[in-house]
Amino acid sequence: MNLNEKKNKLESYLKELGKVAVAYSSGVDSTLLLKVAYDTLGADNVIAVTAVSPFFPKKETTEAVEFCKELGIRHFFVETDEMQIDGFAQNPPDRCYICKKALFSELIAVAKKNGMNCVCEGSNMDDLGDYRPGLKAIAELDVKSPLRYAELYKSEIRKLSKELNLPTWKKQSFACLASRFVYGEYITAEKLGMVEKAEDFLREMHDFTQLRVRIHDKLARIEVAPDELDVIMSKSKEINEYLRSLGFMYVTLDIGGYSMGSMNRALGIES
User: Fold this and answer.
1) Residue 23 three-state SS
2) pTM of the model as a whole
């Protein structure tokens, strides 16, 4: 299928679903999904539901609010505290399953309360090439994945987003901050804050194509795109000083560059 055919397939599927609640994070994928759903089904048949969580930066929530307000989309919020979910803080390999099962159960309740037929989420075809236990929870709860149904890949989603003049067409891909922790390392509010502040500091320094600060106990491992490694090295002194002031004992740069799901290597899984 060409890109236009995939867009038509996406629109047809959304029409079949009728009335949808979109799990909206303000990321590249969910923004396109929400926009197409709104254009296809109309304001009365679409709502956006955003999880407000310490694992997602406040900036993302602010952008979600602004986008929905601009289009006139009804927007709802679910306050989440993943640290209170049994088994989450211990950070097992199926952490994402545990989290998604709890989160989407709440989103489904919001959808039903507002007369929607189902919840839709924004995973795409590239996600099938990575270890994503959260997709199991989505399947068990019968949450719909329209972008995967239309066989859309990330690059195609960006292209469609650009055609629709969406501000997210070249936005960095973002993942829950829990993905910065090596499996088995206990997640704490203190370490979570260290990671978020470190990434905020680096983003203010440079508009990186991709950026992750992975945490391994007291060691920070910075991942950026291979052609941006020199940016980190050119400012290594101030980066080292700031991250150490946050509580990291060692600050390292991964010379392999950014890799989606790099923590999964500990499980013997490559993206």
Assistant:
1) strand
2) 0.86
